[in-house]
Amino acid sequence: MLDVLIAGAGPAGAIAARALALSGARVLMVDRERFPRDKLCGDTLNPGAIRLLAEAGLTGGALATGLPIAGMRVTGPHASVVAPYRQHQHGVSLLRRDLDAWLVEQAVAAGARFESGLTAQSALTLESDGMPAVRGLILRDRSGAVTRMPASVTIAADGRRSAVARSVGLGSSPTAPRRWAYGGYFPLEAGESQTSGPVFGEMHVRSGWYAGVIRVPGDLVNVCVVVEHPEHGGVPLALMRHYLGRDPELRRRFGDQTPIGPLTVLGPLAVDMPNPGVPGLLLAGDAAGFIDPMTGDGLNLAMRGALLAADEATRVLESGDWTGAVERLKDRRMAAIGSKLRFNRWVRALTASPISVRTAGLAARIAPGLVRRLVVAAGDAA
Question: Is domain 44-94+179-267+352-382 in CATH 2.60.120.280, yes or no?
């Protein structure tokens, strides 16, 4: 029987699989997709994520093909603040298809097995000492055939709408705010303000919506619009043009541009997850909870949580005892990333109120240094 079965081969699943394989565990990671594959994301790793990868021995590779990010530019009503990261700190912009494929390769090189074309339908639940416990996954292949795959430890890293977590009653979407993301790539000439000098990520916050912009390799600009109330009949391009056209700068740069390739839609975004697992199952990455990606900290939080889950899985394998495992993981998550989760929730709540957005814009205009400090803290660039 497998030691560890991981649903999902994104950054969280791959980095957990690599850590467990390096510890000597027999690991199988499954995903419905073949890699490389495209993924709607901000395509950025902040300085904290770069440092986490370096500490895990992951340098070079896809990271070397990315563009260094020197900081963030945050705009709002009445304000625009450029916030550079501290000296010797930088982020990286790179396509998720390249990052994710590289991390899967690193997990396989460490000894983990990977099988694509397998969708995790639900947890495999069996009786253990008279109590239900997860003992693997129920998987479906591309032909529709269903397999029951047992494992001593199961890790769900299958994203914010985790089928595995929901199959055991974990996870819910908050009633408010409920946001949808619309994103795609535009030609670099559309973002002419970024064609020279260092790359800065951009976050344009407005009442009821915001837009993230970042230059990525391949002479492309990633543009993502996040809204609270989808309009325009659900047509992604019409919706993006509607919102981008409401802002003079964004209208000039992107309003009439044609995206390269199809646009992608995700929503509702946020998922609350009070507990990071049940006996036999640990949650990692976005499956353990997802907050609107305004701060650019999503990948950092996902991978940090995944390494904590991998560490707890190693402990369970060594002891053969699940007693207190979920509670320990919850406590360790709160100690390691709790303050950042609270900060992200505060930003989410702040931007849900038009009055708060306008007030924050005025405050940023009066005290831009406060915004700079927040950007540095959010990016782990202190």
Answer: no
